[in-house]
Design goal:
mainly alpha; binds iron/sulfur cluster; 0% strand; 56% helix; Fumarate Reductase Iron-sulfur Protein, Chain B, domain 2
């Protein structure tokens, strides 16, 4: 049984829970989940509310990609927003590494703030503001390429010392 789904159903602010199903087993699981059970404790409800609150820090991009065609910089906006959301939700170490692996002209700091994307976004996301904040978050985070270079340098030094002995 999916406790998170059932827990959402017991929150007074939630009027309906949409749960996707791909096969008969998943449907049976969902039926079992929503057939009831013990109410969640206050502590469990607080944990769920905390998770929901932290998710509100992100933006509701549905990856429809309406915004990408008109971007003069050719940015993969939904992919960048997914990274932004991951970093907002929790400290996601993989995101800075993923961004550093992109060509410089495809990173969020390449956004020129023209607003062409925001004008067509059905979710009314202020995409230029997201790109700007995401760039700042990345600039203030660890530089993974530099950390890897330092580690490799230290390992090389150690190897040389061992070879001399
Ligand atoms: S505001 Fe940035 S992300 Fe949006 S279309 Fe312009 S350059 Fe692309
Ligand atoms: S148009 Fe809006 S919702 Fe659609 S992919 Fe772009 S940012 Fe996301």
């Amino acid at each position: 049984m999916n406790d998170t789904l059932y827990g959402m159903q017991t929150l007074p602010e939630v009027s309906i829970v949409l749960s996707g199903m791909s096969n008969f087993e998943q449907m049976k699981d969902n039926v079992a989940t929503f057939s009831g059970g013990d109410d969640l404790s206050d502590e469990e409800k607080n944990i769920l509310a905390g998770i929901a609150d932290s998710m509100k820090a992100g933006v509701p991009c549905t990856a429809c990609r309406y915004c990408t065609e008109g971007c003069p910089m050719g940015l993969d906006i939904p992919m960048l927003i997914a990274g932004y959301n991951d970093m907002k939700f929790q400290t996601a170490m993989a995101v800075p590494m993923q961004m550093e692996a992109l060509p410089a002209e495809k990173r969020p700091e390449s956004c020129i703030g023209c607003g062409a994307c925001a004008a067509v976004c059905p979710q009314q996301i202020d995409i230029p503001a997201v790109m700007s904040e995401f760039s700042e978050m990345l600039a203030n985070g660890p530089n993974w390429a530099e950390l890897c270079r330092q580690r490799e340098e230290a390992a090389e030094k150690l190897r040389a010392e061992v070879a001399e002995k």
